[in-house]
Amino acid sequence: MISDFFEHFGVGKTTLLQNLSGGLKHAKPGVFTAEPLLGIYTWNHIKFQLVEEPALHDSQFLNRIMVGVRRADILALVIDLSRDPIKQIDNILSILDNYHIYLNRNPPQIKIERTGSGGIQIFFLSAEAKECEHLSDFIKDMVKAWGTINASVKIYEKVSIEEIEIAFSRNASFKKACIIATKADLPNTKEIYKKLISFLKKSNKLKISSYPVAITYNENGEEIRKGLDNFALDILNKLNLIRIFTKSKKGVAEKPLILSQDCTVGDVAKDIHKDLFDTFKFAYIYREVEGEITKRRIRAGINFKVNNFDVIEIFSRV
Ligand SMILES: Nc1nc2c(ncn2[C@@H]2O[C@H](COP(=O)(O)OP(=O)(O)OP(=O)(O)O)[C@@H](O)[C@H]2O)c(=O)[nH]1
Ligand SMILES: [Mg+2]
Questions:
Q1: Which protein residue's CA is at the shortest distance from atom 21 of ligand 1?
Q2: Ligand 1 pocket at CB < 6 A
Q3: Nearest alpha carbon, ligand 1 atom 8
Q4: Where does the TGS domain start and stop, copy by copy (predicted)?
């Protein structure tokens, strides 16, 4: 979780962290968080580690904060709906930009390699890539500024000057991101949220989804959170992760394994234990198939690709 810095009050990161983690005794909402603060959000037996980074305030601290940012699987830009949300987004994006951290975009399809000799060779490897042949001199200048006179540059798609610059920046990092818009209980925030949504829709550069949230208290002093109901599921989807359930003699485990969507039965075995992978014999996959009442049982080998919600029973040679 990251936010811009506003000297009067915070955007609500600690309040949210505390709420999602089911209460953190040492967290102090309303007091500036100067060090990263950790919490665990549990959803359907899945644990998500949450980190509140200090508000992006001082260049002296930014380097440290960016180490945390680079480590995250997904960034939540936490925006306070009682302040101008677009300004906050601009502030955060310009800081991330300075650190060559780019949100929700793929790395440019450019491969740069130093070579021993032969000068600078540029290859435009598709019809679209050939449309930027006129940028050859610019690319050569970038190679020289990169500190070499011998290099091969392979370009696979049509790229802009900005994308070429990104490809040459050594510490560029590409992160998934979303927006959490806080304090949605305060007056006028519905209107402000609508403005934010229409701004995001219009922006073709920043493809980002946003979640409004409000944390309030009832008359008994109990905390109530409105919003973020589908957050965990969306995060799994955004990170291309699937849930697999293992089956043993004891039955089907309640707690899923979280794996990448392109994983195989072998990856599942490895995730459970290396020995299970080494002694793997075969697996039964129990899979829901449209139009069938009971799950279909499929006998699968080690390279069989698993699907979201598959139940897997693995048999070993020992
Ligand atoms: N009305 C309302 N106030 C909130 C909400 N969330 C947080 N606040 C208030 O906003 C203030 C700042 O909250 P924090 O959770 O400390 O914010 P933070 O982002 O952690 O702040 P820093 O650590 O200083 O960057 C506190 O007074 C909270 O009570 C909310 O959903 N609604
Ligand atoms: Mg805080």
A1: 10
A2: 3, 9-15, 29-30, 32-33, 55, 182-183, 185-186, 214-215
A3: 12
A4: 242-315
Residue % of the chain over a pLDDT of 90: 92
Band (139; pLDDT cuts 50, 70, 90):
very high
Q: Which residues on neighbouring strands pair with residue 280, listed in sequence order?
A: 316
Q: Kindly report, residue by residue over 79-116, the tens digit of the pLDDT.
A: 999 999 999 999 999 999 999 999 999 999 999 999 99
Q: Which ligand is nearest to the CA of 16?
A: 1
Domains and their CATH numbers in the chain: 13-105+173-237 (3.40.50.300), 110-168 (no CATH), 242-316 (3.10.20.30)
Q: How far is the CA of 55 from the centre of ligand 2 (A)?
A: 8
Burial of 44 (0-12, 13-18, 19+ CB in 10 A): exposed
Taking CA atoms only, the protein residue closest to ligand 1 atom 3 is: 183
